[in-house]
Amino acid sequence: MRPWALPVSLVLCGAAVAASPFRAGEPVPGAAVLLAFLPLAAVASPLVLPRSSGLAQARRRSAADGRPIVFWRPGCVYCLRLRARLGRDARRPHRVDIWRDPEGAAAVREADGGDETVPTVLADGRARTDPGPAWVRALSPRA
Fold it and tell me: Which residues does the UniProt record annotate as the domain Glutaredoxin (predicted)?
């Protein structure tokens, strides 16, 4: 349920803010407010990013195909920015949601000096926090 906390909160906040114009008999501003909150909730939801795997599975797959591992968490603006800047290549890396995988969170803390800073990308034994998309693309072999 934790990954859905932010999107659900955004929908509830949008509904609360939109309720006032609706009660005042002004449905257009109320609908506009609600429509502004819904895309924010969608972007913050786990539906935007590809399905995550556990760290052990991501390491096995990465060893087999050479693609990097991206550690992320739902609602992280920097994770969403990296995904958007990667474009079509965003599905290439293996993904580990640190909120769902304690082993992944521990790997991020180890790589980031005790912090759970995401996105952190692990490839070839090297970890980089909030890398540029060109660096991630260079690590992702084409299928």
Answer: 70-126
Inter-residue contact 30 to 21 (CB < 8 Å): yes
Same domain, 69 and 96: yes
Q: For residue 75, give the nearest of 50, 107, 40 by alpha carbon.
A: 40
Cα separation of 77 and 82, whole Å? Answer: 9
Asked whether residue 50 is domain-assigned, the answer is no
For residue 24, the enclosing domain spans: 2-44
Distance CA 38, CA 8 (A): 10
Same domain for 63 and 22: no
Closest by alpha carbon to 90, among 141, 136, 44? 136
pLDDT of residue 108: 94
pLDDT recorded at residue 137: 81
Res 141: pLDDT = 63
